[in-house]
Amino acid sequence: MRIGFDIGGTKTEICVLSSSGDLIWNHRISTPKRYEDFVTAILELVNLAEQHHGQADAIGLGLPGAISPATGLIKNANCAFLNGRDLQHDLTSQLGRAVNLANDANCFALSEAIDGAGKDAPVVFGAILGTGCGGGLVIHQQLLVGPNAVCGEWGHNPLPGYHEPQDGPARACYCGRHNCIESYISATGLQHSYQLKTGQTLSAEQIIQAYEQAQPAAVDCYHQLIDHMARSFAALVNILDPDVIVLGGGLSNVRQLYRDLPDATARYVFSDTAQVRFAQAKYGDSSGIRGAAWLGL
């Protein structure tokens, strides 16, 4: 039995998986706003799960942040009360056994590599295309984190081949840089592209609906999105050449991506021919918590 947690700004979810990956139980609570209350809540949820299902073989947490390799403390978490805390030590010491922590995008990639859309593929890159975009890399079902805990953070590389007449004015990113990939191939990026073209503000879902209705501005924005994605993923393929790129997040539900992206990406790959495989996440929004449960594998 494995226990996984998905930590969010508003909710914290726990799940119990069997050794074969079947969901046995899950439960949600509101995320506490104080660190001490948060630690207590995690301990109580573990106790609740184990009262009903026996002691877990592994416990893992997927976090909206990362653990600094230099200090062991959490950094860049959108749950601000976690930043600067040694959560792994505090939970491990109180539970008396190992607790594994990882970035939520890494958990997504691990889940899809173990028993999801990337199952049995040697090299899997998981990309979450939501409000922003992030990623994780799994090789032979082992998650790569790196000495700086930034493996997979390809969304904060510059958009390859940026050219203002083609791509529009430079876009500022919250990280302090300009033209980051996530400023283009995310729901926010698509909204920005549409607003630049029309002066109107629509959600990414509304823009895709307009594209499906063949509205010219939305059609132009969709084709621009495909080109931005193709250039971004081709740069990834040129470095890693993954067997499969698994897409999650809201934009992963756009079914036309799986029709248009492979050929568009192949045109930018450094090869005379290129086979680039994209797959939609098997477990959708549940991939993160499932990956947290698999962390101790």
Automatic annotation (TrEMBL):
Keywords, ordered alphabetically: Carbohydrate metabolism
Pfam families per the UniProt record, alphabetical: ROK (PF00480)
Any one Gene Ontology molecular-function term assigned to this protein's record: hexokinase activity
PROSITE patterns (alphabetical): ROK
Cross-referenced PANTHER family: D-ALLOSE KINASE-RELATED (PTHR18964:SF174), ROK (REPRESSOR, ORF, KINASE) FAMILY (PTHR18964)
Name of this protein: Transcriptional regulator
Organism for this UniProt entry: Vibrio furnissii
